Amino acid sequence: MHKQQIGLIDCNNFFVSCERLFRPDLERVPVVVLSSNDGCVVARSKEIKDIGIPMGVPYFQIKDILRKAKAVVFSGHIALYRDISRRVFEVVRQEVDTMEQYSIDEAFFFIPADADPQAYIAHIKDTVEQQIGIPISIGVAASKTQAKYASTIAKKTRGLHICDEAQWESLVSEIKVEQIWGVGAGLARKCKQHGIVSVADLLQLDTSRVDAVFGVVGRWLQSELAGVITSPVESKRLLQKSLMNSRSFSKTTQDIAILADAAAYHTRQIAAELRSMGAACTLLRVSIRTSRHGDFFLRGGSKEVVFQAPTADTFELINTAETLMQELYEAGVPYQKVGVQVGGIILQSDKPATLFADTRPDTKALLQAMDVLNISAGRELLTIGSRLRTDAWKAKSETRSPAYTTRWKELAIVSA
After folding, report:
1. Is residue 141 scored above 90 in pLDDT?
2. What mean pLDDT value characterizes the chain?
3. Nearest to 83 by CA among 33, 28, 35, 21
4. Helices 364-377 & 256-276, crossing angle to 10 degrees?
5. Computed from CA positions of residues 126, 128, 132, 133, in that sequence, does the dihedral angle turn out positive or negative?
6. For residues 287 and 328, what is the distance between their CA atoms, to the nearest angstrom?
7. What are the φ/ψ torsions at residue 100 (nearest 5 degrees)?
8. How many CB atoms within 10 Å of residue 145?
9. CA gap 377, 369 in Å, rounded
């Protein structure tokens, strides 16, 4: 038996891999995935990285470069990516005893004490890739932070890497602090100010000094880097802390009807997303912004409401959003952007009981039926709170791939 270790599964270039799953002709072809509204680059294939295109660069700035490289560009298709993510980690759950999904494409898990680590992770990798078709990498080490670094080594090799105590000790003097998971720009800057450049420098510091200079975060990081499990793997599914929908208008508007209609549109999208997750929110925030260039730059703002009970009810959320919009709006101010955000997201099954009677009408069956119709139609066939016939604020998705796994009408057809 060996000391218990933690593994990290990471889906390689996940959004790109999802697009290639149904387009095998794109293997080794430069592929880019764009953010909502086709704004900037959020995923790159290896071929795109080799060209030198950075993450987050606005699409309009690199159009010519992509054209010359004969790259294929996709509008982000988050519903497809989430569904494939669900499939990947359902397979993993069948293979491991304890799994904690950390993000849409990553999950931690324990290596059983009586298992052969190499054979164990090789089996998981083979099973996921055979059943789902998404390439994955797995890094294994003594703690979550070490496993995260091991996974970066795995990606550069054959997709599997086990970092034992001896190898970790040989690496710490070479690993820069800013390369470590959880170390942001602020903490990295503070480390440099105190002469801490490598992981070895941090590990050699006296615990009392780490506590005095960096506080709880630094102490936690030092323990994790030393191979101490300070954050054990917990069996839980990914649940986002917040959801946000926002769009800029092509032209500014002073019309509150347009602003309210945009807020209703964003709220409907978020409410449907909450229900698809089996979740509800406890907070809703609406924001309206003016152009950054002009005399009204400092106008606009945001307001929020905390609900007495968690909700995913479109009617309640839209009514709240409209009230907040009325409070925010100033006549004569040219607005350019509306955003809606929800927070305090919990699973519907975890909703706490309330001492107060719920006087709201039960709209659950109606909203479920509406979701089914809209999903099958591939658009908002039925809407709530829409007053105008305009789509000025809706996202661009000029190169979005079909909904291969979530809509019957868009299933891939194979001819034998």
Report:
1. yes
2. 86
3. 21
4. 100
5. negative
6. 8
7. -120, 110
8. 28
9. 12
Q: Distance (Å, rounded) from C-alpha 60 to C-alpha 75?
A: 13
**Residues 120 and 4: beta-carbon distance below 8 Å:** no
Task: Record the pTM.
Answer: 0.73
User: Do the Cβ atoms of 314 and 345 come closer than 8 Å?
Assistant: no
Distance of alpha carbon 251 from alpha carbon 295, whole angstroms: 16
Residue 105 region by backbone torsions, left for phi larger than 0, else alpha for psi between -120 and 50, else beta: alpha
Length of the chain: 416
Question: Superfamily for 1-238?
Answer: Reverse transcriptase/Diguanylate cyclase domain (3.30.70.270)
- Map out the domains of the chain as residue ranges: 1-238, 242-377
Cβ neighbourhood burial of 284 (10 Å; 0-12, 13-18, 19+): buried
**CB distance 304 to 352 below 8 Å:** no
Span 324-357, pLDDT tens digits = 999 999 999 999 889 999 999 988 776 666 555 4
Between the CA of residue 361 and those of 97, 275, 358, 370, what are the distances in Å?
Answer: 42, 17, 8, 16
DSSP 349-397: GGPPP-SS---S---HHHHHHHHHHHHHHTS-SS-SS--S---TTSPP-
CB 249: neighbour CB atoms within 10 A? 18
The β-bridge partners of 10 are: 106, 137
β-strand 279-290 against 335-343: which pairing, if any?
antiparallel
Q: Which two tokens stand for residue 277?
A: 């997750």
Q: Which residues of 156-193 are buried (b: 16+ CB within 10 A; e: fewer)?
A: eeebbbbbeeeebeebbeebebeebbebeeebbebbee
* CATH superfamily of the domain spanning 242-377: DNA polymerase, Y-family, little finger domain (3.30.1490.100)
For residue range 186-210, list pLDDT tens digits in order: 888 999 998 999 999 999 988 888 8
- Are the C-beta atoms of 129 and 95 separated by less than 8 Å? no
Q: Which two tokens stand for residue 90?
A: 């359902």
How far apart, in whole angstroms, are the C-alpha atoms of residue 114 and residue 116?
7
Structure tokens at 336: 């350019």
> CB–CB of 136/9 below 8 Å?
yes
Phi, psi of 329 (to 5 degrees): -65, 135
